[in-house]
# Entry
Amino acid sequence: MAIFDSTIFRDLSGSVGNVTAYKLGDKQVVRAKTFIVRDPKSLAQLKQRLRMKVVVKLRWGFVGVLPLGFCTSSNKACLNGFLRENIKKVEVDDDLNVTCDLLSLSLSAGELALPSIRAEVRVEERQVVFRWERQPLMPYMFKDDRLYGVVYESDLRKCRGVELGTRGISGELAWKLPEKWDAGKLVVYGFAVSADGKKASGTLGVCRS
# Structure
């Protein structure tokens, strides 16, 4: 607040921008408006914020494969794609308890058809054995589409992408776990990417250990 005596601005009143002028007795007063930021924190807002927090945290465990699954080298585009595909897969109840089925997560998105991929976690052998089947060629399925498996260790929150083969040829591949990974804490996914790397399929939740 400022008090001034000016023959030019005498009897000035009203507001301009964030400043209000008025008379207080025989004094001319100028006061800046007070801005109040309202944050009601409604239940709906709290739920959405919690969903965002969970999805952003999950995203860091998959950063190595998101550029492949979303066909971009842009970290921002990968983050936006992961948020878009997964925000509704995080459930928050009225007590703000969070549940999320890791097997339902999307690590890729696009118009290609889902691949035919299966996997078996062999805990004692510390291996994931992938099998994939040749698919008939049709729109959104091409014989040179590259197939990928993704293995996620949920305790360490780390993943590895595994190139399997192509859609046009059936095959099998055994992938050995890194030394410190817990074979009982794995979630396995699969998706397809076009030969030029510009298109991808959605994500197939294959299995968990």
Observations:
- The first helix runs from residue 43 to 59.
- Residues 27 and 162 are 77 Å apart (CA to CA).
